[in-house]
Task: inverse folding
């Protein structure tokens, strides 16, 4: 984990103190609501339907056990005893009181946490691969780079008033677990002539206008990362549309200019900045990497584990689906699914947070990761401890063996909480999950991503779900548009809308008809998205709307 | 009524509100400015709107002792880049002034982008509001606040040093 320096610590304390002053002035009528809105958003605070919502940054998804305990404490003291993990690896509290938010920020700063730039038209919390540093297919650990971007973008004086929000993701592996092509800037570590650098993708995004990013730089030397990012941001800050918030994201600018012209503008801007003060030296890079603590692995000589002691089918399903190979011999990556039936996807109670913090201390070097699929990871577990860990997770209802399977539904808070939503999303997730509770059937269906968003802002990433569900408002009634064929991996694909929207009560059956369609057409070893890509959308249209001629 | 915070009141990153003075300065719009004779130019402060293409017009601006950049709203972001470009790319050393919806909470950001004076409305300068200036003792990126200007006599851009690993705090 990155450990804060004194100046990192001072900065977040100072921002918390500044926000306290801003909140005080707003409450005293000494700051216009319109101005306070911009300052509070830049500090992760929304005023929602029922209460304010505070979004706490978890940079690139990394948490220490003490940080997770602090989140548990905050959820109990200032909220209703739970938190919600988002698709951008952050944690949201849905019930804090505005007057208490400055105090919450002070609590957060005591464990090197904050809510800076988790909202507002600025550079948002940077995300990365949840398996950074432990994945076998990794070229280079993206976290030092993500941390460098975090620091560089934090309270950046030039880019705090962008036309719209700006999201950056970094991936260091062949297999893209950070969804770099649906970010404003996606950085992928690649090799060229034995050195690593960045492939730069720009202008991806979901929301109202989903667009897959364009590659504007096939290889950027690492030393130029910050000058190049400055160039992209500067071009966007100057030329991005400010007259219409729905046309203000960088993706619209890239599309309007054309990716090639946009890339040329960035290039000429960059040439004025290249080799300037923001150039990163090898000394800087080495120093930065040393600011990360590393797990103190043992030299183990055990073979990959194929079954846990005993013949329990539940533990076997968990081992098969939630436990992934680790690059270090003798260790395994353990995923904790937060997609248990009866709990909103991504929700976690204070009790569970405390327990997982304890398990992290006992089994995984005191570290936890948050995934953009809204689950948690204990990334460094010794294989010999897997059975013990499973038993403890099982006891706490945290051993649901469905990682990447159909009941591992990705879902935004939706109309139950969010004032932007057109429809509720949590009850839809639950209705879908409830029909896939037989573990053998879930395993037979195999890998399927279902993504649900309550409005076109797409926090549930429905555009990249194998099956996407979008809440829409039809004359005051909640309806849901279903799309198929999205893919958030390196073969990024946007889902295509099937046809007319369904009322809420018909969604579970409609989804199941798509699943049965896949089962009917699939070849051996083929998963949902592979079948879809081979068969095409028409078969799924016919299945989704029985009785209507194709 | 507005007050003006001038370059002389900016020392080592601190915006000195106490030295602000009343002002009723008027500015020429860029379109009006273009119609004036070359000889009268340097006496007339010019006010540039956010959509100005600074690269296109810089040669005309170069002799001016003051360039004012307008903030039609407090959430306007383009003048920050314009000021940074003036300092970093063109090494403009005279005064760059923020005019319009200038808010105390944003003075530090403006200053760090290279603005050297601020025209700000009187009601912004209450004690509770100007307290907002005191919050930050350091920053996490390079900026233009130490760019050479006529007011500060600096020789080169400051370069941020990353944190030393041995200063890291364990929690």
Result:
């Amino acid at each position: 984990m990155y450990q804060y320096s004194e100046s990192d610590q001072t900065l977040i304390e100072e921002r918390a103190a500044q926000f306290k002053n801003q909140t005080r002035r707003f409450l005293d009528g000494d700051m216009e609501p319109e101005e306070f809105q911009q300052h509070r958003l830049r500090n992760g605070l929304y005023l929602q339907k029922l209460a304010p919502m505070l979004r706490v940054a978890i940079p690139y998804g990394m948490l220490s056990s003490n940080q997770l305990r602090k989140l548990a404490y905050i959820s109990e003291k200032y909220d209703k005893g739970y938190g919600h993990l988002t698709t951008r690896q952050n944690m949201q509290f849905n019930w804090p009181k505005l007057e208490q938010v400055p105090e919450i920020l002070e609590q957060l700063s005591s464990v090197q946490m904050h809510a800076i730039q988790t909202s507002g038209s600025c550079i948002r919390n940077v995300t990365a691969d949840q398996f950074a540093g432990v994945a076998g297919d990794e070229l280079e650990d993206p976290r030092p780079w993500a941390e460098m971007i975090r620091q560089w973008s934090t309270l950046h004086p030039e880019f705090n008033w962008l036309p719209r929000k700006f999201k950056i993701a970094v991936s260091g592996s062949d297999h893209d677990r950070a969804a770099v092509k649906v970010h404003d800037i996606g950085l992928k570590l690649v090799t060229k002539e034995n050195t690593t650098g960045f492939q730069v993708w720009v202008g991806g995004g979901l929301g109202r206008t989903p667009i897959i990013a364009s590659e504007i730089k096939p290889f950027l030397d690492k030393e130029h990362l910050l000058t190049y990012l400055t160039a992209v941001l500067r071009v966007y800050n100057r030329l991005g549309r400010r007259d219409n918030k729905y046309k203000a994201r960088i993706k619209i600018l890239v599309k309007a200019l054309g990716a090639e012209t946009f890339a040329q503008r960035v290039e000429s801007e960059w040439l004025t900045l290249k080799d300037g003060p923001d150039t990163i030296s090898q000394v800087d890079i080495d120093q930065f990497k040393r600011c990360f603590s590393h797990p103190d692995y043992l030299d183990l000589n055990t073979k990959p584990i194929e079954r846990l002691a005993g013949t329990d089918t539940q533990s076997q399903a968990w081992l098969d689906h939630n436990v992934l190979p680790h690059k270090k011999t003798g260790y395994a990556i353990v995923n904790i699914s937060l997609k248990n039936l009866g709990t909103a996807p991504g929700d976690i109670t204070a009790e569970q947070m405390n327990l997982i913090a304890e398990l992290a201390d006992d089994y995984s070097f005191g570290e936890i990761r948050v995934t953009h699929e809204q689950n948690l990871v204990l990334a460094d577990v010794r294989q010999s401890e897997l059975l013990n860990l499973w038993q403890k997770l099982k006891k706490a209802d945290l051993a649901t063996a469905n990682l990447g399977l159909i009941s591992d539904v990705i879902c935004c808070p939706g109309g139950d909480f969010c004032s932007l939503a057109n429809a509720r999303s949590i009850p839809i997730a639950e209705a879908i999950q409830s029909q896939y509770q037989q573990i053998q059937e879930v395993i037979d269906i195999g890998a399927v991503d279902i993504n649900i968003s309550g409005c076109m802002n797409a926090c549930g990433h429905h555009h990249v779900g194998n099956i996407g569900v979008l809440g829409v408002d039809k004359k005051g009634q909640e309806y849901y548009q279903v799309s198929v064929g999205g893919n958030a991996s390196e073969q990024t694909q946007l889902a295509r809308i099937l046809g007319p929207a369904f009322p809420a009560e018909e969604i579970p059956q409609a989804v199941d008809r798509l699943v049965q369609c896949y089962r009917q057409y699939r070849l051996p070893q083929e998963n949902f998205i592979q079948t879809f890509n081979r068969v095409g959308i028409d078969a799924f249209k016919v299945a989704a709307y029985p009785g209507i001629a194709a | 009524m507005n007050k003006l915070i001038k370059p002389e009141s900016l020392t080592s990153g601190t915006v000195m509100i106490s030295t602000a003075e009343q002002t009723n300065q008027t500015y020429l719009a860029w379109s009006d400015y273009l119609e004036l004779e070359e000889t009268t130019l340097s006496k007339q402060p010019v006010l540039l709107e956010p959509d100005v293409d600074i690269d296109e017009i810089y040669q005309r601006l170069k002799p001016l002792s003051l360039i004012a950049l307008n903030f039609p709203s407090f959430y306007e972001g383009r003048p920050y880049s314009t000021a940074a470009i003036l300092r970093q790319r063109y090494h403009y050393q005279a005064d760059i002034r923020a005019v319009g919806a200038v808010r105390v909470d944003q003075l530090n950001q403006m200053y760090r982008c290279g603005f050297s004076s601020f025209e700000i409305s009187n009601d912004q300068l209450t004690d509770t509001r100007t307290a907002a200036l005191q919050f930050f003792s350091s920053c996490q990126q390079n900026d233009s606040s130490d760019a050479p200007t006529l007011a500060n006599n600096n020789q080169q851009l400051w370069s941020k040093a990353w944190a030393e690993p041995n200063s890291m705090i364990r929690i």
